[in-house]
Amino acid sequence: MDPTRAFVKNVKRVVVKVGTAVVTRDDGRLAVGRLGAIFEQLEKLNSRGFDIILVTSGAVGAGRQRLKYRKMINSSFADLQKPQVELDGKACAAVGQNGLMALYDTLFSQLDVTSSQLLVTDNDFKNADFRVQLCQTVDSLLDLRSIPIFNENDAISTRRAPYEDSSGIFWDNDSLAALLAMELKADLLVLLSDVDGLYSGPPSDPRSKLIHTYVKQKHQKAISFGDKSRMGRGGMDAKVKAAAKAAYSGTPVVIASGFTSNNIIKVLNGERVGTLFHKDAHMWIPVTEVGPHELAVSAREASRRLQALTSEERRKILLDVAAALEANEQFITLENDADIETAREAGYDESLVARLALKPSKIRALAESVRRLADMEEPIGHVLKRTELAEGLILEKKSCPLGVLLIVFESRPDALVQIASLAIRSGNGLLLKGGKEAKRSNAILHKVITSALPEAVGSKLIGLLTSREEIPELLKLDDVIDLVIPRGSNKLVSQIKNSTKIPVLGHSDGICHVYVDKAANLEMAKKIVLDAKTDYPAACNAMETLLVHKDLLASGGLQELVQELEEEGVTLFSGPKVNGAVNFSKANSLHHEYSSKACTIEIVNDVDEAIDHIHSYGSSHTECIVTDDHDVAEYFLSRVDSAAVFHNASTRFCDGARFGLGAEVGISTSKIHARGPVGVEGLLTTRWVLRGKGQVVEGDKGVVYTHKDLLMSNGY
């Protein structure tokens, strides 16, 4: 639950207002399907014990549509050629209200819900006895689990016209909903609109950003409103005025889209939906709060300042980061211990708890890896190719940073250090979102690292996101963020890929295989298999499936491998071909990442079947063959389509540090841009630099192209 939405735990009585743009389609007809979906939500909430009060617009629009049709049917061809007089709004309201309530009653009846209609006018609320009676009637209806449906009685209202008069106790159905929320002592008011909430400008403007929490001191004068509602009399301006009035009188308000599935239920579940208005919002959100867009822009600006430094200055930053990690070891372990304790109390699996741990030895190892990264060759501005296009016209292809990276990772706080140091080394800005289970560890590590950044760069080079609700908005910033790297499950990677136009470097499941061939040295195979599974079972490069050649079943080799694993406390599960050959449980799936001391064992007929199994059930991460047959090994290495393939070496070697990359942001199973352990090189792109002496193309008449490759002395 989003912290700013915690108040919903105490919500009992809810007023829901549906605007004209929600009630009707673009052609003016009633949006039956959309209304049905909304009413299903109201039925569920009603059955869960919530008091639901509905305020509806749309009568005038619905009536106009019906009267126009009737007028056309009853008109002669000559009448239709004459200028058409605008229909009387009050007549439209009278006709539309009848049709609207007939539809509402039908929809609610289908859901076995009783509804009731209450039409009110502005003048009614001037009568104190009316207000008392209104509350008593609504209380009685709610006790009977009936849903009261309110609408302004436009047909007999004393207003000059429904669209013109904005004076009085209430002036449209938004302000009526706010008034009812206050009169009936509602705990929450939900205003459904045709947009996702309140934006900083017109929603159609790509520069406009969704405001999740409205703070009067911050937003009142900073927002520019777009056009009014396409059908109703109000618009977002009217909704904001009504929402602010209700909120600052004590009833929280959420403006959300009526077009999005289950939005009302999401609001009541505490999800960060739409825009929240609350009288205490200024205490939760600083008036100078930096939003996701500002965070990304700040990271980009800081990255450009970082790139402007000399190579030695960037190297010194990394050395300062390493020293800061060691100097703050005590504070880091203190916060990490708190995360571990919280995780255990919450009942997290021990494999996840193991990923959380940051022991002093681990912190010192991280500091050393940062120093190694600092001592690596300067990656920025490296000349990859130099060509003479024509005499005095020299073209260079040079390495350069990508720009701003968004990296979402789960569980492991040590990943934050590796990612941050790689971003600094490669000159990139960085936005990080870690798992909630490592919240305190991530926060202290971020503070330690950013405190080591010089003022010339600024601490905003690396931003730490604290709420997952910020991720969807960041994924829309394809004009600022250049690459997204999700480190986690296939579900996480798929969700992010489906939610953004920004390039995504996929890092998903680590279902790694070791295939022990019939020509394997069995003693070597035992060492490799044990290391691949038990060195760090929670790692993504740990073995999850052991494939064994069928001949090892007859020779006893399979039994020896099983014995070695069981003696190390590894729980074994069998594939279909192993069932009966050895005595352990059947695997539920051959595509499974245990991330613990457990693995699947399966028998294969030959190397081709091993390769087919890997392609069918693997995750394209890391695979190993153990064999003394060189030809079989080369066959395996050339045909397995994974990011890393090994011969006679543990899968645990698939690691940025072990590959000499200094560190890694993850292991990519994608094929575009970077694959396998992604170090500094994977966070760089290229650009072209052309130096001339006044040359012009001029139809290529005056240019003699040489296209001569030039030797590079040191790459810079």
UniProtKB/TrEMBL annotation:
Signal peptide: none annotated. Coiled coil: none annotated. P5CS plays a key role in proline biosynthesis, leading to osmoregulation in plants. GO terms for cellular component: cytoplasm. Residues 12-257 form the Aspartate/glutamate/uridylate kinase domain. One of its GO terms (biological process) is L-proline biosynthetic process. Its EC number is 2.7.2.11, 1.2.1.41. Pathway: Amino-acid biosynthesis; L-proline biosynthesis; L-glutamate 5-semialdehyde from L-glutamate: step 1/2; Amino-acid biosynthesis; L-proline biosynthesis; L-glutamate 5-semialdehyde from L-glutamate: step 2/2. It catalyses: L-glutamate + ATP = L-glutamyl 5-phosphate + ADP; L-glutamate 5-semialdehyde + phosphate + NADP(+) = L-glutamyl 5-phosphate + NADPH + H(+). Keywords: Amino-acid biosynthesis, ATP-binding, Kinase, Multifunctional enzyme, NADP, Nucleotide-binding, Oxidoreductase, Proline biosynthesis, Transferase. InterPro entries: AceGlu_kinase-like_sf, Ald_DH/histidinol_DH, Ald_DH_C, Ald_DH_N, Aldehyde_DH_dom, Asp/Glu/Uridylate_kinase, G-glutamylP_reductase_CS, Glu/AcGlu_kinase. In the N-terminal section; belongs to the glutamate 5-kinase family. In the C-terminal section; belongs to the gamma-glutamyl phosphate reductase family. Residues 297-564 form the Aldehyde dehydrogenase domain. Transmembrane segments: none annotated. This is Delta-1-pyrroline-5-carboxylate synthase. GO terms for molecular function: ATP binding; glutamate 5-kinase activity; glutamate-5-semialdehyde dehydrogenase activity.
